[in-house]
Specification:
Blueprint lengths: L4 H28 L4 H29 L7 H22 L4 H20 L2 H4 L12 H29 L3 E6 L7 E6 L2 H13 L6 H41 L7 H22 L6 H23 L8 H4 L1
Antiparallel strand pairs: 1-2
Helix pairs in contact: 1-2, 1-4, 2-3, 3-4, 3-6, 6-8, 6-10, 8-9, 9-10
């Protein structure tokens, strides 16, 4: 009996997409409507199941084509989604906040939806590697780069969440983001603050100012640590790419659009980490830089490919 592995691969990816949609609904319902621990546990199990399905799809593609599936945009999107779910699973095992899954799952869903629904069929088809890609550097460079993108995306999402929760409040971050950090939260209007505090005493179903402070401090700590992990990976990815480029094209750096935007991404997160280490920027400013990094990453990863120009092009516009 001959098994159509390509069809099995498609079923795995499509099932991962469907379950991602269901998981998103459960996460958001649990946060907005009903705070239920059982629903949270179910959503975590579904996230693990999504990761398994993506692993199956990538493995089948790897075995069928005899190279690690990172040669085109479709494959890299699936791998990015796999990295996002891996990171989410790890974070949720260490942190019990339901907000982590609620903010990561939409990005997971959108990335797999874009790969499955939006990309034309000819971009999903595996093709023989061009000579420049027939190298062990393919796995080394591209896996590290996409893993760094996934980690930095999650760190940036947490910074965006930090800005959303702290909207309308002045933030003063004191100390570092590990053991001694404290966040001083002050409402911009003392009158508004007094009214809110009176209302909080009457309504037990609204989080107190102390709860909000703890939540903000936890989100800020987690965002800083995640970006602190993703930044070295991005650095290693850029360096390995330069070495590979020298082997393939005889130059370490050619100012290819992808290389240029990777450097811009590196600079943005370097500024963020530098500002946090020496406390040169205060309040919400570092989180704003990290939030900008979220946009820059997607420009680097997808925006450049849409143009279909440069040595890294496997873009949509020139392929369709």
């Amino acid at each position: 009996m001959n098994i159509n592995w390509n069809l099995f691969e498609n079923y795995s990816i499509n099932a991962a997409f469907a379950i991602s949609l269901l998981t998103l609904i459960i996460y958001w319902s649990n946060v907005i409507v009903n705070n239920n621990q059982k629903l949270y546990d179910i959503s975590k199990i579904l996230t693990k199941f999504i990761n398994i399905l993506l692993s199956i799809g990538l493995t089948i593609r790897w075995l069928n084509n005899n190279y690690f599936p990172l040669s085109n945009l479709y494959e890299s999107l699936i791998f990015l989604t796999w990295c996002l779910t891996c990171t989410q699973i790890f974070l949720e095992s260490k942190n019990k906040s339901k907000l982590i899954g609620a903010i990561i799952t939409p990005t997971t869903l959108l990335s797999i939806a874009f790969a499955s629904i939006c990309l034309p069929n000819n971009m999903k088809t595996a093709t023989p590697l061009v000579p420049a890609l027939k190298s062990n550097w393919l796995m080394m460079h591209v896996t590290v780069m996409i893993t760094s993108y996934a980690i930095l995306i999650i760190g940036s999402l947490l910074s965006i969440l930090f800005l959303i929760i702290s909207k309308g409040q002045a933030i003063d971050i004191q100390g570092n983001s590990y053991n001694t950090q404290k966040i001083l939260l002050k409402y911009k209007s003392d009158k508004f603050s007094n009214l809110l505090n009176e209302d909080l005493k009457k309504r037990n179903n609204i989080i107190t100012e102390s709860d909000r402070l703890n939540l903000l401090q936890g989100i800020d700590n987690l965002s800083y640590r995640i970006i602190g992990l993703g930044f070295p990976l991005l650095t290693i990815g850029i360096i390995s790419g330069a070495v590979w480029a020298n082997e393939a094209w005889g130059t370490y750096w050619s100012w290819d659009p992808k290389e240029t935007w990777a450097l811009i991404t590196w600079i943005i997160f370097a500024i963020y980490l530098h500002s946090r280490l020496n406390k040169s920027l205060q309040g919400k400013q570092p989180a704003m830089i990290a939030s900008l990094g979220f946009i820059i990453i997607w420009i680097c990863y997808l925006g450049v490919n849409f143009l279909g120009k440069g040595l890294h092009s496997y873009g949509w516009l020139i392929s369709s």
